[in-house]
């Protein structure tokens, strides 16, 4: 049973005295917050305007009580994010990455997209909110504590439902993310609760991006495919929503990777995203599987988007309609969903290796194990397209490369 964390947000002032277009004053002052608990480091976040950038530095520790819902411990990070202080819309939206961070919240915690990772198998790339593996603030740990959805009361200074929502975070394109409520007119005589325009077409326990479709709607409270809109003051921003995609469905502006110069202190999960918890223990999460110490999750994370030539080749090789293949690969005209070849193979009813071959791509070669696992630790076995169920800290990337952590990093595997 997930306990509701102790949320002391009345303390939350601003972390920077500056105001203006870069919105540095949107960040919480966490210095007097209760923090994650006595066993964890104190939270830290600071924000400043530097030239044409908003610069945010934090340690990724939540400012409220940490309730563990996955096997992965809470680890301190060393983040620096740099995003444009005056973001601009792009000519066309950009898909968010399938795995890894897409922005950060006003308490310095990173934001992920609305899907999980490749483990466990029955929930591969599923909707983590639907699968109920989030804490009360819609966060949990993998290699770092992060949000897949956002709860306004966890990130605001006592703002009431029905009042215009404050900024709760930022996407890596620089656009702010506001809570669910916003002004419908310039004078704010009417306040609306904004809603997602994505519709569920099947249960999203697995391959969540294929379980939802964007359907444009005319009503004022419905948002665009990126989960944003241009407000009555003429500024574009995102809103968090009760339903998918919860935060961002795509980037409205050009993303700058992990905040352009983001970094994180190398941290390794004690249990590893690929290891199931003991019976009766907390849940599991496999949504982030980069190599330790290597920032991931910006534009281009995961396999590259198939080209029209690759789609045509796959259509011929698999004897399937080209439009069907393009949709399964999520590259149909106007498509904004992140690529996931494992999910595409399931949709097409073929093996992942068969799809990769049909695209004219080659799978990553196997790497032999260099050493044995430390005494008392299970060995980590590496196979193309799978990982040993009882291995410690092993999982797969969307392009079928095995990534692993203790003891496997010591074995120079991955």
Structural features, described:
The protein is mostly beta strands and 414 residues long. The chain contains five helices and 19 strands. An eight-stranded mixed beta sheet has the order 6-7-5-4-8-9-15-14, with no helix packed on it. It has a three-stranded antiparallel beta sheet with strand order 1-2-3, with no helix packed on it. It is globular and about 60 Å long. It starts with 44 loop residues before the first strand and ends in a 10-residue tail after the last strand. The model is unreliable at 6-20, 261-283, 288-302, 365-402 and 404-414 (pLDDT under 50).
What descriptors fit this protein?
17% strand, disordered C terminus, mainly beta, 9% helix, single chain
Q: What is the radius of gyration?
A: 21 Å
Strand order of the largest sheet: 6-7-5-4-8-9-15-14
CA(first)-CA(last) distance? 35 Å
- Number of DSSP helices? 5
Low-confidence stretches: 6-20, 261-283, 288-302, 365-402, 404-414
Say how many strands there are.
19
């Amino acid at each position: 049973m997930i306990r509701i964390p102790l949320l002391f947000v009345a303390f939350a002032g601003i972390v920077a005295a500056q105001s203006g277009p870069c919105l540095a004053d949107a960040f919480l002052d966490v210095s007097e917050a209760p923090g994650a608990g006595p066993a964890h480091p104190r939270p830290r976040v600071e924000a400043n305007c530097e030239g044409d950038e908003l610069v945010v530095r934090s340690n990724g520790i939540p400012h409220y009580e940490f309730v563990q819902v996955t096997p992965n411990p809470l680890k301190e990070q060393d983040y620096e994010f740099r995003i444009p202080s005056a973001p601009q819309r792009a000519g066309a939206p950009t898909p968010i990455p399938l795995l890894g961070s897409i922005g950060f919240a006003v308490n310095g915690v990173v934001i992920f997209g609305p899907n999980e990772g490749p483990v466990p198998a029955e929930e591969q790339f599923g909707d983590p909110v639907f699968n109920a593996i989030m804490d009360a603030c819609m966060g949990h740990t993998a290699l770092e504590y992060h949000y897949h959805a956002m709860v306004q009361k966890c990130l605001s200074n006592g703002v009431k439902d029905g009042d215009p929502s404050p900024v709760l975070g930022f996407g890596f394109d620089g656009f702010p993310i506001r809570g669910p409520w916003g002004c419908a007119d310039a004078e704010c005589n009417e306040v609306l609760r904004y809603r997602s325009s994505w519709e569920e077409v099947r249960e999203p326990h697995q391959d969540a991006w294929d379980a939802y479709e964007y359907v444009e709607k005319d009503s004022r409270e419905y948002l665009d495919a990126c989960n944003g809109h241009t407000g009555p003051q003429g500024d574009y921003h995102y809103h968090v929503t009760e339903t998918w995609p919860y935060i961002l469905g795509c980037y409205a502006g050009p993303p700058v990777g992990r905040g352009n110069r983001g970094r994180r202190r190398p941290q390794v999960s004690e249990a590893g995203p690929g290891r199931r918890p003991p019976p009766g223990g907390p849940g599991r999460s496999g949504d982030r599987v980069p190599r330790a110490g290597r920032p991931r999750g910006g534009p281009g994370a995961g396999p590259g988007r198939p080209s029209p030539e690759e789609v045509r080749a796959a259509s011929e090789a698999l004897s399937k309609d080209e439009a069907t293949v393009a949709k399964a690969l999520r590259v149909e005209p106007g498509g904004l969903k992140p690529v996931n070849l494992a999910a595409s193979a399931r949709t097409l009813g073929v093996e992942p290796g068969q799809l990769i071959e049909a695209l004219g791509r080659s799978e990553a070669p196997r790497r032999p194990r260099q050493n044995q696992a430390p005494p008392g630790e299970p060995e980590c076995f590496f196979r193309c397209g799978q990982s040993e169920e009882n291995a410690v800290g092993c999982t797969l990337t969307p392009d079928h490369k095995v990534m692993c952590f203790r003891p496997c990093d010591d074995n120079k595997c991955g």
